[in-house]
Amino acid sequence: MSGLRIVRREERSEPATAREHWLGTDALLVLVVASTWGFAFSTFYLLPTFLVQELGVGPAEIGFVVGILGVSTVAFTVLAADWVERLPRRHAMAFGAFAMAVAAVGFTRVHALGPAIEVLRVLQGISYALVVTSVGTLMAELVPHERLSQALGLSGASMLVMNAVAPAVAEPLAATVGWRVVFLLAALAALVSAALALRIRERAPVAVATRAEERRRGAHHAHDGRRTDRMHDARRTAAPTRAVAAAAALASRNGLLLVLRGRLARQYAIILTLSGAAFGAVFTFQQPYALALGRARVGGFFVAYAAAAILVRVGFGHVPDRFGRHRVALAALVLYAAVVLAMAAMRPGLLEVFGAVFGLAHGIFYPAINALALVGSPVHERGRIVAIFTGSFSLGLWAGPTGLGVVAAHLGYPATFVVAAAGVTVAATILHRSPELRAAGALSLPAPPAQQADL
């Protein structure tokens, strides 16, 4: 008896352990899946170089081919959101990764512009929609709410690291053994990602959990021998259940449009579209522009970009939560516009400098703006808010390269960066003047109970 001691709740070690392990095993596996898939996806950031060196195409054609990814992602976003809400997220991720593998293998047979390359880019758009939406939703579910911005930053960093690794590996590999080997390596990475995705343990979607609860209740009634009452309940609730199921299906199809009726979601979508257009323009046209200025290789831009973005997200992922998501997102977006505008005066030796500053702005802005939208929206709309990010950003990825490719063909590459910077300036103005996004930035997540404060 003398060895017993009453331990107060405050002295227990669980909260400290939870604090140390707030990023659980399954969340870590999501990051690994995202990173592995990110290698395959990031390999195709060098697609403009492939098109110039192997197919000899001009800026308008480059913009068109690159832009197909964005428009296909937009077209598939609603269905992707439905899948992510209804199906196990790991299955959506695995299917998306497998689509990337098929597309990468298909590129080994591309020798000219035509329908084949368009179909392959559509497959990659489907892959992007499924994987990115699944990753964002899973991370929001698997980590504590007070770590939301940091978790979103880490999930982005898990893919960003491959923005550096994949081009750094692929560009010299293509120069020595050819692009076929590069595309096969990307396919292998995507297949590994698909296999790992199936090992993630996740919470059951609401619809699945509801059906499971109904089955448990039915089993309980059967065990009690209440056959008559159960048959009566079944007859009484059959019609309402069918009506609810039909309404749920309709809401799932139209849910994304319903969410977009809100001012916050609309403004979020516009900001992401404009910034996505600038992102697409920078990643697409800095390559042929630098090659035309005399650069032999362009992979250094991606290495510098990814290094800066990863540093910000990993080392300073807490900054939006601590200093205000709205304030930080606005400052980063202003920097975004400045560096895009400066790229109009690019010099070959400054490619890595531009990449680093662009990565700094991107690494701060996207976790902050995403956290703004998630915190300012109801919990049950979280999956569709992530889907809005995927669709809006992808709309920009289509509009930027496609439209600005025509600008580059007629006015030159510097004009593309001037127009892209103007679009980001408009986005910053919307963010600055939005009362909804400003109010979301002022929201603080509710403090959890004492026994859960360290989760």
Count of distinct strands: 0
The named CATH superfamily = MFS general substrate transporter like domains
The residue-averaged pLDDT reads: 77
- Classify the helix fraction into a percent range: over 70%
What is the C-alpha radius of gyration, as a whole number of Å?
Answer: 24 Å
Secondary structure layout:
Blueprint: H1 14-20, H2 25-43, H3 47-55, H4 59-86, H5 89-107, H6 115-142, H7 148-177, H8 179-197, H9 206-224, H10 227-259, H11 263-292, H12 299-315, H13 319-323, H14 325-342, H15 351-375, H16 382-411, H17 413-433, H18 435-442
Describe it for me?
With 455 residues, the chain is an all-alpha fold. It has a single domain (20-201, 249-444), classed as Growth Hormone, Chain: A (Up-down Bundle). Helices cover 80% and strands 0% of the residues. It is built from 18 helices and no strands. It has helices at 14-20, 25-43, 47-55, 59-86, 89-107, 115-142, 148-177, 179-197, 206-224, 227-259, 263-292, 299-315, 319-323, 325-342, 351-375, 382-411, 413-433, 435-442. Helix 6 (115-142) runs antiparallel to helix 7 and helix 11 runs antiparallel to helix 17. The longest helix is centred in the middle third of the chain and has 33 residues, at 227-259. The radius of gyration is 24 Å and the shape is globular. Residues 1-20, 205-215, 218-223, 225-253 and 445-455 have low confidence and may be disordered.
